[in-house]
Amino acid sequence: MEKARRTSSPSWTAAVALVSLFAVAGVAAAGAPPPRRILVDTDMDTDDLFALLYILKQDRSQFDVKAITISANAWIDAGHGVDQLYDILYMMGRDDIAVGVGGDGGISEAGEIHPDVGGYLPLIDQGMSTVGGCRYRQAVPPGRRGGRLDTDTNGGLRRGFLPQGHRGYAPLRQPTAQQVMVDTVSAGPTTLLLFGTHTNAALLLMAHPHLRRNVERVYVLGGGVRVAGNLFTAYGANPFAEFNVFGDPFAAYQVLHSGVPVTLVPLDATNTIPVTEEYFAEFGRRWQTTPEARYCFQSLDLVLRRHRRPAPGLHGSTGYYMWDSFAAGVAFSSMRNGDANGANDFAELEYMNITVITSNKPYGVRDGSNPFFDGRATPKFGLKVGGVHSGHVQTGIGDSFCLVPGSNAGRCQDGYTKEVTGSEGVRVRVATSAKPNPVYNSAFDREFSKNFLEVLNLAKQAGRFNISTQFPYYREVLYKPDFINVSRGKPVIFDMDMSPGDFVSLIYLLKAPREVIDLKGVLVNGNGWANIASIDIIYDILHMMGRDDIPVGLGNTTAMGNPTLGCNNVYAIPLGSGGFIDSDTLYGLARLLPRSPRRYTPESTDDPEHRQPLAF
């Protein structure tokens, strides 16, 4: 009997050990908190790309990025932005992340918010369609040299680096920004990261107030509390505002005053973490071991070529800062340390009472600048007559109300995140400065500067490939026909605004016999049915047709006689379906074209031969 007991003892012990192991594992699993659900709203500017790639490298057992929506009324045009986002997610192996952009819903005269408002326009100008002006957006240059053309194409780097996956914009099938936001927040507690204007988030919170309880906290990159603003194109009218908040001040006010906890990372903090020449050089020397790190470095290189302007008091500064990426670092550090205690590895934080200025004193004056009140017996959204929203609203960067004779700084405060006392202020946690690197004489003078590069270069969750490693045997070859023995017909130069009909006409001209029509060149203007970054579609069509010999010239982004930052023509063309988003993507068909070796390339490139020629 004793022998029998001894013989069975090892198996019995193993069984007990196995049960104990499962019990311990079960307790551990039960005790482990679920990953934080993350929703990112971004305007897809270059610094946003850095932030997105940093976010996608975070530990997925702690942070689960559920969705990304595009803020389409500032630095990016929706069609170009959404396809670049799809390509980034494909490179990073994250096709599981929902993507939302645009929508054709509207807001009625009575203030009723219909489903799927696209966020193409600031709330003050949003009507029942996607047609509207550019009251605030005209502060963003539309063309080259750091404008939307460079953002839409990422300086030409996007098409030369990113792989192309199976997802892309498709009319009628593309999820809208509001659809993705509502679905994501409805599914469970979610943290919002806002890296653009606040239009999409404000629409979510205003139209679905019951979902506010599911928003754990909002992290905002934007504003300037105790420092000057950064509207470099509009400082003469408004020296107080920062771009992200200025893009829709009323929306930012709604987010701030929604009752949802907010952490603000304003210019006060980002001004203390510049990209120095030493940092950039160190990035290039040692920190490009993953596709995402290389994409960030090459993007930063392009930006700095056109952006370098030393900032006063900052040795070695390039004039460029770690805006969105630093805000992402602050957000994830706060979440790791527990939002409630305020501890942060990268930033000094303090509570302030602030608000967002949406109109200028004197309040209650109806001068035609404020659609919330002008011509209305009852103010829109039930706003208070004579209240903080009832003053003069800046109508543009040249608004005469805002200009001060003899001064380079204007008096308008639209979009100013102002520190106030009394009931109008909201208690907000604010980042005031970046924490220094404790290591003396390091190339990384801020703690986050080093962390950013370390995270980008982690082997875990690294990008799978770029376009050249995805197709290692692909070579960029220009196709130029031999017409030596072919008689030439009438020479033609085709000037086009890149509407879908123009592309059909271009293909027709290319199919015509050379003896009849000799297409000598294509000129492109950016003040019609497509944004000027759609010039890349022309290059792809010419490549498909074997006509890489035909030069393409870049024309103006505004009509003759209009200011460079004007927007007189945009009132005639929808920003949503049937308008810019469809033209810029050729109704989703542009991604089916072969990718041409030729593409828009800024004048700052090292290779003069590849610089984009101008029309004249």
TrEMBL record:
InterPro entries: Inosine/uridine_hydrolase_dom, Ribo_hydro-like. It comes from the Eukaryota. GO terms for molecular function: hydrolase activity, hydrolyzing N-glycosyl compounds. It comes from Triticum turgidum subsp. durum (Durum wheat). Belongs to the IUNH family. This is Inosine/uridine-preferring nucleoside hydrolase domain-containing protein. Residues 1-29 form the signal peptide. Residues 38-359 form the Inosine/uridine-preferring nucleoside hydrolase domain. It holds the Pfam family IU_nuc_hydro. Keywords: Signal.
